[in-house]
Every structure is written in C-alpha cells, then in structure tokens.
C-alpha cells in the first residue's frame, strides 16, 4: 500500500509537508492530488515542506519542478521550503536547478514570499 502525502489548506495556500520517504508512485500521486486540490480550493499558493526529506533523486527533483509548473498553469505559485544543504548540493550535482521553483528557508518565509508575490495578504494569522 502506498502512503499518500496529505495536503492541508491555510487561507489561500495549500501546504504539503512531506514526512515520508518518497517513492516514485507517492510523488506521482502527490502531483495529481495537489493539482486536484488547487482547482477545488482555488488556492493561490502551494508550499511544499521538505524539511524531513533527507535524499532527493533526479526523479523527485524533476517532479518538484513539474508540480510547480502544473500549479502555475492553474494560477498558483509554488514555494519549496525546508531544503537541507545536502539536498541542495545533490540537486546541483545532478544538474537540476529546479527552474521556476521558488525556495525559502522555512514555512514562515515561504508564506511571506507567497504574500509578497501575490501583492496581498493571502494568509493572515489568527488574531
């Protein structure tokens, strides 16, 4: 049985926190689930938190770029947050620049980046 990655909604942002070792099928399912959720919710932003991911291979790296491209086509910007230095080094060594994928150090900075890109507050903190 394949583990599915949950997609959470916060305001106009969908948050994906990857807490499992991604297998190719899990990544393909995430791509489909996320596209469906962007359309269903009208999300303006997607944050993919990879803080818990220790290893990214070329397939997963390409799929992150593909997810960002699909989200853009559906009018949502994507930010990948929590990338470990070793993962960044591996992606560069594999020749994967993840073109079109914005990154931020953590979830808070990712939300701030999406708010800046949208030109308005798409997520507001609870008062």
TrEMBL record:
It holds the Pfam family STAS. Residues 3-114 form the STAS domain. SUPFAM superfamilies: SpoIIaa-like. Coiled coil: none annotated. CDD domains: STAS_RsbR_RsbS_like. This is Anti-anti-sigma factor. It comes from Streptosporangium minutum.
